[in-house]
Give the backbone structure.
Amino acid sequence: MISEDTLQKTIKYSSLVVLVLQSTCATITVFYGETIKFVASIIMCCVFHKSLAKGLSDIYTECVHYRKELVKVLIPAAIYTIQNILVYVALDNLPSATFMVTYQFKIFTTALFAVIVLKRRLSLIQWIALFVLFCGIAIVQVDGKLSEARKKADNSSLNSTEINKTEEGNSIVGFVSVLIACVLSGFAGIYFEKILKKSTVSLWVRNVQMAGPSIVFSLLCAFGKDYSEIFKDGYNPVSVSSNMMKGFDWKVWVMVVINAFGGIVVAIVIKFADNILKAFATSFSIIINCVIAYFWFGFDPSYLFLLGGILVIAAVFGYSLFPNKTAKKSVDTEEG
Ligand code: C5P
């Protein structure tokens, strides 16, 4: 796809975009993302029913007549809203590579909640695979950081104060944010999987039910955090909405739409695969990106990188090929 240099530049500039977002409108960004998911899920529900009326009536029935089902999604909706905000805070305070490696910790929290909440039993090999995966990703990321540091050292035009500033951030805030985000990600994902698989409510209605409260939660967070900025020209809806769009150029909108689309894909994956496989797929995609970069753009991986890559691939296969046999049997009997 891109050379290592371009890859580093992309990470650098996207993290700058995120930094801008965080300082001006992180919570508002989450609000717009949820609104896009809400509308997209209503459209998909109608497409699924092949009728606007049937789609809307399905959503209405599920949300109004079966309010208990709606209440069930309030927990993951609130948790995902906080998690999404924390991810922005973490990206603002940590170098992107550090964020990526630390965020892999969610594989452990997800597995842990799968075992506790879904009573899923993992085989010993799967536990080992989780550990190996984490090591593999860590090695790949450490390698990335080392080559970045080497480049910086080579680059005499960059003065030392500039290096220190980029490295520092408020790393404790960033680290705590990413750790909490991992715990929330693991719990919300497993909770969502549970309510999705154990009820007859369709995926699209569930997404509408999730995005609706998330819009309210994120709006409340935005008002709480940026109240003076949003209402600085009074309570007129036109000035409020224009203040809420400040700093939103087309690049920010593209990012909001991509994130919203990513959220919908996550819901589909949770429905048709499971949360732990989702986490593996995300980690695996980092490696695939690098392989494409190697064949098409002359990316030259180091031995450390190759070691990390092999560990990740081995972990993905180990996890998928060696499920807990007794757990699988009991799931088959339950589903049959
Ligand atoms: O990092 P992680 O994979 O936990 O992120 C999950 C993302 O998917 C969150 O941004 C969450 O808002 C989104 N999601 C969604 N709809 C769902 C489930 C998750 O938009 N039904």
